[in-house]
Write a structure and sequence with these properties.
The complex is a heterodimer of chains A (326) and B (257). Chain A is mostly helical and 326 residues long. Chain A is built from 14 helices and two strands, in the order ααααααββαααααααα. Chain B is globular, with a radius of gyration of 19 Å. The chains are: A mainly alpha (326), B alpha/beta (257).
Amino acid sequence: MNSLSKQKDIIGFGALAVIIIILPLFVESKYYFIVLNVIGLNTIVVVGLNLLIGFTGQISLGHAAFYGLGSYFSGVLTVNYGFPLWPAMLVGMLATGAVAYLIGYPSLKLQGHYLVMATLGFGIIINILMGELEQFTGGHDGLMGIPPLTMGGLAFDNDLKNFYLIWSFVFLCMLAARNLLNSRVGRALRAISGSEVAANSLGVNTADYKVKVFVLSAMFASISGSLYAHYITFISPSSYDFHYSIQVVTMVIVGGMGSLWGSLLGAGVLTYISEALHVAKQYHVIAYGVFLCLVLIFLPEGILIGIYNLFLKAKTKKHIMKADRH
Amino acid sequence: MSNSNYILELKDISKNFGGLQAIHRLSFQVEKGLIFSIIGPNGAGKTTAINLITGIYPPGSGDIFFEGRKLIRKRPYQLAHMGIGRTFQNIQVFGNMTVRENVMVGLHTKSHSGFLKCLLQTPMVRKEEKIIRQKTDETLKFLDLDSKADLRVAGLPYGDQKRVEIARALAMEPRLLFLDEPVAGLNLQETQEMSSTILKIREKGITIILVEHDMNLIMGISNIITVLNYGEKIAEGSSKEIQNNPKVIEAYLGKEF
């Protein structure tokens, strides 16, 4: 990375930090806090998923399951077994990573889109298990009374405190993703999506890297799921169905595949729009669909890069018109 | 087992695809520091030979040695770590990345930080990154790509993309470099530039195995030429010997009446 993009990163992350710190001053209703917190949770999942889909070119349709595993590990371990909170989150993250390894290893060894099929089936199985393993998970009625996270004497027990907690994690996850992307590993991942055979010829163990980035992205989802469980304090299988997997993939695409800041924007815009469109009542789904179509047709590279390109185009047009007049 | 002057040895390599015998009992030795060319009419088995040596698929029988070490059943990424670089007949650049980033991937084997270290950007990562940048700059300069370093490769002309592929492989500091049709699709001027580039690479002491259809290039820069036809070696020697070899003339032009 050259010094210019390094500078851009410092500005970007600085701005993000400032916005996170001062934003709550301008938010008054509890409702908007919830929306912002959900955006944060989704962003963590989408950043991880973008590492897999956008940068490495491998598709997962089962991230709801990894998100759910995080939630359920945290919920079940703390409620049923009295586990301490942070260690439960860590156990959840490691266990989710291990599960992802077991799914990813065989399906990524094969050439072709086997990961899509494997994760699709896996996601559905996990979702069913959440409902059926009643003695552990509380079944379809869900699991109640999950304690909020604490740090020292501070309990994250309201929307504002959770805002800072969740968005601190967003900040850290994005920073870690940025570090990864600017390193030899990140370049190797992008090389895999560019040409797997060439990446291999340059010494990248592509099969191994694909499994590892899949595990990493599952862990991101798991962290987010744990935060969700401790924030809402109640979890049930319906939050982790196939629709959620599709939703986060859509956020990656709308935000921009292979764009880190796009992940934040994709999660933000789609979470907000799906909330805002509730005014359309029964036409909600149609309106959401129309919005997606418009983005894919007019901004196929995602909204962040798409709008930037439109801006550049307008600028060049202005220059040309100016030159014509002279 | 192996003469230390030879960097690469093929011993009795055969490969069948179903009923088709693509390579039949092929043997040759490549001496260190030379440009060794493989030619032959279409379908002679050149690409199959390259794919066997570079680990794309294993041979049916026979042995391959690189610096005296067995190559068979090694995966392509392992060959890179051993010091074998290659380019591709149909361009395989990372179009979504800049020229500089493409070359930086070439330094993958020269650095070691894993996922966790890179996520946390430890001091080791930063140290390696510095070395990668510096070596990348050197490689870019060597191939006159420094003015295009920050452009996306997908938007570059064909000839530049071919040079990016070579730069990427050179960054690995390989001891053996395969060039699979490096001038296919290039115009006359680009071909001449490529020819001097290849000679420059040899000057660095890198052994080059060249597969090419462009006879002017082959005859101009090769030290040794091996001719394949129907999966067998029919001749080997200097460009003069090859040009006057009746078997080679027959393979390319047919029998004289």
